[in-house]
């Protein structure tokens, strides 16, 4: 074996090693930026008031039934399986209604839609004097909070 053959083999191995390091770097950057797992977005699409009862006497109160379409938008490149979750309707930060988001699976880069019925009652908001004032103005500001937990296609386990 001549000296020239040994050097060309060493050069070839060095080129292969440099190529492997370069490809690993590219894959790592791609995995950490483009393939980053994001939480799904949960939104109300439409809300319909099925029934509404109010009382604005000594102790103001409201009772209503809402029918809403909820969407779970999965922006990831893999599916997202989520467990039963709770959706809370809030008035001044206090829960006045609660609904269960049934477990399901949002496919990759898709949006899952489903309807949920929510009972809202001001019985839990005892002693809040703002309710009567808001009812007199004809405006009742409600908020919502939901947290969905689950596993994506790229998470470990199932």
UniProtKB/TrEMBL annotation:
The keyword Flavoprotein does not apply. Keywords: Membrane, Transmembrane, Transmembrane helix. The chain crosses the membrane at residues 12-35. Residues 70-133 form the Late embryogenesis abundant protein LEA-2 subgroup domain. It comes from the Eukaryota. InterPro entries: Lea14-like_2, LEA_2. This is Late. The lineage of its organism: Eukaryota, Viridiplantae, Streptophyta, Embryophyta, Tracheophyta.
């Amino acid at each position: 074996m001549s000296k020239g053959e040994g050097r060309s083999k060493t050069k070839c191995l060095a080129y292969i090693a440099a190529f492997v390091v370069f490809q690993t770097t590219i894959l790592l950057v791609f995995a950490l930026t483009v393939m980053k797992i994001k939480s799904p977005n949960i939104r109300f699409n439409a809300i319909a008031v099925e029934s509404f009862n109010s009382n604005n006497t000594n102790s103001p109160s409201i009772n209503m039934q809402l029918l809403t379409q909820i969407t779970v938008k999965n922006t990831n490149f893999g599916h997202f399986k989520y467990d039963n979750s709770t959706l809370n309707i809030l008035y001044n930060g206090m829960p006045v209604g609660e609904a269960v988001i049934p477990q399901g699976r949002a496919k990759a880069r898709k949006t899952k839609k489903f309807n949920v019925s929510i009972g809202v009652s001001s019985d839990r908001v005892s002693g809040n004097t703002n309710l009567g004032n808001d009812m007199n103005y004809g405006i009742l500001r409600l908020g919502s909070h939901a947290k969905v937990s689950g596993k994506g296609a790229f998470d470990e386990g199932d």
